[in-house]
Each structure stands twice: as structure tokens, then as C-alpha cells.
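Per your request, structure below.
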């Protein structure tokens, strides 16, 4: 149908209005000084009308430029904005300076913080040599400096967002966290947090911490020294797929119920992932004496190579450095139901004496009493609080060639687990095939 002339004109003028409403901000750069104050001033400048660069805008860090992010950068609420990192960004090399900002009372929680809004895209360069965030983390790792370390990126309180093509090189510690955000797509990001010094471990370099609702993580590549992705408390409908994780502590859910907290995690799917040379592949962790619920969590189609604990569930976590396990018989536990581990294949690292680089105490923080190192699955459950925790279709070998094993205690769960529930050989039951 042909619209009448006036309607076509109206349509045309609204298109023009839309086009002209899109503003572009090229982030200015000055060699040798902090680029954050100038950007912050521009973002808060409303002389061009409220929200000049904070709605319907593109904010561009130019290619072939190395920006000095020498103080924390806080984006105000953004609506319909794309932030494009075409050039490199770099943290200060001065550790004391970073620590002062992180320890300050007005610190917003990350070195780069997004404080809400809708339809926000954060993208990196497609050029592999550009668009890197350089954290200078090696300087911290080399001296085991762990005081007042920053999170990299807090993508907080955003409704409708994308994080894509970002690249992070040697972050100081944790990378991305998405607290309070909903409807996110996070894809094709790269995190390289491997240490160049075998005796300097990249502690707490978690890749992604998902916290919120309806978030999809796809095709991300992570080499690091802590969780590849961790689903944190108060999260629903989170998917991770087609990922690669190396050196990491796995595809994790938790920790839930610390200090009796009432936690909630529901509907989580991890699928099609490669776990290479990691401590865990799939992990669930809640604290002794916790509360709340974790339900409908599936890990499936996981290839694991050289992994110490391919599948590990504990409802009895406590800080082993603070003494013996507390007696939890009179308090609640985080209730877990419908946890499924399906289609896992690979090799268990059972090399005698081998330790993950994060092991700096005796026993290690990940020590499991009575484990042989050959377990492909460990279910450490709490009586009366776990139902339908199932492993199906597991195929494993050990690096030494010994048969694979399992740990499970029939007094802790009354539903079938998919294998003979015992501390001993791994023997799948009819449910487990
Ligand atoms: C704010 O923007 C106006 C218009 O572009 C410009 O004239 C003014 O110098 C800016 N103020 C600051 C503090 O950047
Ligand atoms: C960046 O520099 C390279 C090499 O000098 C050049 O080919 C390229 O066009 C530049 N890119 C931009 C966006 O300026
Ligand atoms: C989202 O924001 C971008 C600009 O970053 C804009 O082009 C696009 O139209 C917006 N989408 C919606 C659905 O408003
Ligand atoms: C590092 O930062 C601290 C704190 O701001 C400052 O006192 C010190 O002079 C800086 N060191 C160097 C080498 O710039
Ligand atoms: C997100 O919203 C909560 C609740 O209003 C607020 O406490 C928190 O500071 C916000 N986070 C960010 C990063 O803005
Ligand atoms: C993924 O990111 C890389 C750069 O890190 C880029 O070369 C590639 O084109 C991106 N892929 C897609 C599908 O966007
Ligand atoms: C950007 O940073 C990466 C990673 O540190 C580096 O390999 C690359 O050479 C840098 N690119 C430029 C243009 O400085
Ligand atoms: C989670 O997904 C379900 C099914 O798609 C939907 O009904 C529910 O509203 C979602 N939860 C949230 C908090 O968006
Ligand atoms: C697996 O990880 C090891 C150790 O980090 C590395 O040397 C190897 O290249 C990785 N394999 C693949 C296929 O990426
Ligand atoms: C778990 O998933 C099942 C099947 O999809 C659904 O019926 C049930 O409501 C879900 N439970 C929770 C707590 O979300
Ligand atoms: C245990 O959980 C029940 C039901 O959720 C709740 O009513 C009770 O307050 C909890 N007890 C403790 C000690 O947290
Ligand atoms: C370890 O095995 C010993 C001997 O079978 C048993 O007494 C002990 O309770 C086990 N410890 C744990 C934590 O399962």
C-alpha cells in the first residue's frame, strides 16, 4: 500500500531526525597523561542538551591510539549507546596508584564501570593487533601483590546489552562482571591471563562472573587462573556455549550460601565447551550452613583434556584454613535439584604429585579427603538437600592409564546419580549411559 504524501514526508523527517540524533564522540587522547578526566567531562557535558553523548551515541576509542586509563572510568547511565574500543587501552604501571583508587570510598567496583541504562553495546576491534585492554597484571603477579586489586569491567544494571570482540591482556585480577543486568549477549571475547613466569600465578583472574537474568555467553576464549565463567547468586536463565577455557578453574556455579545467605540460581546451561589443562571442568559449590535454592543446571557436551577434577559438586564447602569443618547438623543447606552432567569425554590429570599453580598451602585449598586423583566425578552432597543430581555419558581416561574413579555417598542422596554411588571405580548405571 502506498502511504499518502504527508505520511511519507513525516516518515522521511523522522528518519532524518533519527539519523541526526546519533552523535559520535571520538575519545580524546594526550600522550603521557590520564585520558579519563577529559572523557568524563565530555560525558557529563549537557550543553548540547541533556544526554548529548549518553543517549543515541557512539563513543569511540580510536584505532592506532594507546589510551591511558590511569584512573577508574565510570560511564553514566547510557541509552542506545555503543562504546567501541578500536585502539588499545592501558592501566597504570604504578601499583600503588591503582591500589589508592580501589581503596577509595568513591570507588565504583571496577576499573571501568557501566552504571545502567538500556541497549548498550561494548565492542572491541576486529583487528587482532588493536583493541586490547592491557592490565599490566604481570607486575602484580610477579610480586604476589593481592591488596586492593580492581575488577576489570563492571557491566552493571543494563537492560539489553552486548559485549563483543573485546580482548584483555594480562588483567590484574577479575575480568567481567554483569551484576543486575538482564538480556545480555556476550560473545567472541578473548582473555589472555597466562603468566609468563611459572612461579608467578595469575590469581583470581576469573573470566566472566554472570549475575543477573537472561544472559548468553557465546564463543569466548579464556586462558586464566580462576573460573572461566562463574554464575553468581541471584541469577536466572544463563547460557554459556561454544567456549574454550585453558588453565582455568572451570565452568562454575557458586559459591552459594556463604554465612547462611539465602541464595537463588535457576535455569543455567553450559554446553559445547573445551576445557584444556584446567583444575575443574564443571563445578558447583555451596557453603556448609547455606540456604536457598539452586535448580535446573545442566553442563553438557564438554571435552576435557588434562583436568584434575572434571566434575565436582560440593554442598559442604568451608574455608579449610579456618579450622575443621563446622558441624552443620542443625542449620539449612542450599537445596539443589536437577543438576545434570551429560556427555563428558576426556582425560583426568592423575599425575602423582601434580598441583595446580593456585595451590600455595598444605593441604591445597582444593584438597578432597580420600580422593585418589582418578575421580571423573565427585558428588559431595548434604543429606536431605539434594535431588536429581545426575551424571550421564561420561567417558574418561587417566593420564597414567589407571581406571577412572568416582566419589559419592549413598547416605547423602536418595535419587539415582547415574553411576554406582560409592568411593571407588566409576561404574555407570542404566541411567548413566
Ligand atoms: C560542552 O560542550 C559545549 C558545546 O559543544 C562546548 O562549547 C563546551 O566547551 C563544553 N564544555 C566542556 C567542559 O567540555
Ligand atoms: C592504523 O595504522 C595502520 C598502519 O599505519 C594503517 O594502515 C591503518 O589505516 C590505521 N587505521 C586507522 C583506523 O587509522
Ligand atoms: C540500540 O542502540 C543503537 C546505537 O548504539 C541503535 O543503532 C539501535 O537502533 C538501538 N536499538 C534499539 C532497539 O533501540
Ligand atoms: C605511584 O603512585 C603513588 C601514589 O599516587 C605516588 O606516590 C608515587 O610517586 C607514584 N610512583 C611513581 C614512580 O610515579
Ligand atoms: C545497580 O543498582 C543497585 C540498586 O539500585 C545499586 O545499588 C548499584 O550501585 C548499581 N550498580 C551500578 C554499577 O551502578
Ligand atoms: C572475533 O574477534 C576477532 C578479533 O579478536 C575478529 O578478528 C573476528 O572477526 C571476530 N569474529 C566475529 C564473528 O565477529
Ligand atoms: C595492543 O596491545 C596488544 C596486546 O598487548 C599488543 O600486542 C599490540 O601490539 C598493541 N597494539 C598497538 C597498536 O600498540
Ligand atoms: C527466565 O526464562 C523463562 C522462560 O523463558 C521466563 O519465563 C522468565 O521470565 C525468565 N526469567 C527472568 C527473570 O527474566
Ligand atoms: C592446551 O593447554 C596447554 C597448556 O596450557 C597448551 O600448551 C596447549 O597448546 C593447549 N592445547 C590447545 C589445543 O589449545
Ligand atoms: C526446571 O525445569 C523444568 C523443566 O524445564 C521446569 O518444569 C521447572 O519449572 C524448572 N524449575 C525451576 C525451579 O525453574
Ligand atoms: C531454613 O529454611 C527455612 C525454609 O526456607 C526457613 O524458614 C528457615 O528460617 C531457615 N532456617 C535458618 C536457620 O536459616
Ligand atoms: C576417609 O576414609 C576413611 C577410611 O575409610 C574414613 O574413616 C573417613 O571418614 C573418610 N573421610 C571422608 C571425609 O570421607
Amino acid at each position: 500500500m502506498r502511504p499518502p504524501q504527508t505520511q511519507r514526508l513525516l516518515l522521511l523527517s523522522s528518519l532524518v531526525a533519527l539519523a541526526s540524533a546519533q552523535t559520535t564522540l571520538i575519545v580524546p587522547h594526550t600522550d603521557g597523561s590520564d585520558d579519563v578526566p577529559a572523557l568524563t567531562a565530555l560525558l557529563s557535558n549537557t550543553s548540547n542538551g541533556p544526554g548529548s553523548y549518553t543517549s543515541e551515541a557512539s563513543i569511540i576509542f580510536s584505532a592506532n591510539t594507546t589510551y591511558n586509563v590511569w584512573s577508574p572510568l565510570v560511564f553514566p547511565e547510557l541509552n542506545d549507546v555503543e562504546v567501541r574500543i578500536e585502539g588499545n587501552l592501558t592501566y597504570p604501571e604504578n601499583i600503588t596508584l591503582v591500589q589508592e583508587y580501589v581503596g577509595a570510598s568513591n570507588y565504583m567496583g571496577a576499573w571501568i564501570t557501566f552504571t545502567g541504562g538500556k541497549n548498550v553495546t561494548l565492542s572491541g576491534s576486529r583487528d587482532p593487533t588493536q583493541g586490547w585492554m592491557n592490565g599490566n597484571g604481570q607486575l602484580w603477579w610477579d610480586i604476589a601483590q593481592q591488596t586492593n586489586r580492581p575488577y576489570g569491567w563492571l557491566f552493571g544494571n543494563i537492560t539489553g546489552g552486548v559485549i563483543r570482540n573485546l580482548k584483555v591482556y594480562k588483567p590484574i585480577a577479575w575480568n567481567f562482571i554483569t551484576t543486575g543486568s538482564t538480556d545480555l549477549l556476550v560473545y567472541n571475547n578473548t582473555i589472555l591471563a597466562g603468566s609468563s613466569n611459572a612461579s608467578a600465578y595469575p590469581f583470581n583472574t576469573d573470566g566472566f562472573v554472570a549475575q543477573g537474568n537472561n544472559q548468553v555467553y557465546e564463543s569466548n576464549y579464556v586462558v586464566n587462573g580462576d573460573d572461566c565463567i562463574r554464575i553468581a547468586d541471584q541469577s536466572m536463565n544463563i547460557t554459556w556455549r561454544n567456549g574454550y577455557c585453558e588453565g582455568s578453574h572451570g565452568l562454575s556455579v557458586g559459591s552459594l550460601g556463604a554465612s547462611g545467605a539465602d541464595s537463588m540460581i535457576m535455569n543455567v546451561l553450559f554446553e559445547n565447551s573445551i576445557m584444556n589443562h584446567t583444575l575443574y571442568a564443571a563445578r558447583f559449590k555451596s557453603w556448609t550452613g547455606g540456604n536457598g535454592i539452586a535448580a535446573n543446571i545442566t553442563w553438557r557436551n564438554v571435552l576435557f583434556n588434562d583436568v584434575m577434577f572434571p566434575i565436582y559438586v560440593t554442598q559442604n564447602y568451608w574455608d579449610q584454613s579456618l579450622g575443621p569443618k563446622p558441624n552443620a547438623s542443625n542449620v539449612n543447606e542450599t537445596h539443589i535439584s536437577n543438576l545434570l552432567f551429560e556427555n563428558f569425554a576426556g582425560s583426568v590429570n592423575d599425575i602423582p604429585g601434580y598441583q595446580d599453580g593456585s595451590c600455595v598451602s598444605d593441604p591445597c585449598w582444593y584438597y578432597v579427603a580420600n580422593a585418589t586423583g582418578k575421580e571423573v566425578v565427585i558428588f559431595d552432597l548434604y543429606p536431605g538437600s539434594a535431588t536429581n543430581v545426575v551424571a550421564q555419558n561420561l567417558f574418561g581416561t587417566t593420564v597414567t592409564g589407571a581406571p577412572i574413579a568416582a566419589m559419592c555417598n549413598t547416605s547423602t542422596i536418595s535419587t539415582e546419580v547415574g553411576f554406582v554411588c560409592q568411593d571407588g571405580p566409576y561404574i555407570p548405571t542404566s541411567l548413566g549411559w
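Residues 369-370 surround 2-acetamido-2-deoxy-beta-D-glucopyranose (ligand 12) (CB under 6 Å).

Regards,
D.
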